Amino acid sequence: PLVDAAGRIFAVLAGRPPGQDFDDAALRACRKMIREARGTSFAPKELNHPRGCFPVINVGVTHGKGTTEPVNKAEHQDVAQRLLQDPDIDRMAGYADCK
């Protein structure tokens, strides 16, 4: 299982995408995220949050925390777009979404 900083289980991996290169793709995706994080300045709330002490960014539309209408998150859009366009990250996300 995957656990947060408090030891709470937040996901269980039960399977893996087809193909022999999954481990390599996961490693490349991880390295891409690390490179992007190192080249980005984060606010304290993006580094220390309820899920743990690691960088996090929001992607897409949100409606909450005092907003009166849906808004598109503007912080780190360049980083988000580079990550979303990465084929290895797309593969991981597609598998998680059952594509």
From TrEMBL:
Its domain of life reads Eukaryota
Name by which UniProt lists this protein: Uncharacterized protein
Q: Which organism is it from?
A: Macrolepiota fuliginosa MF-IS2
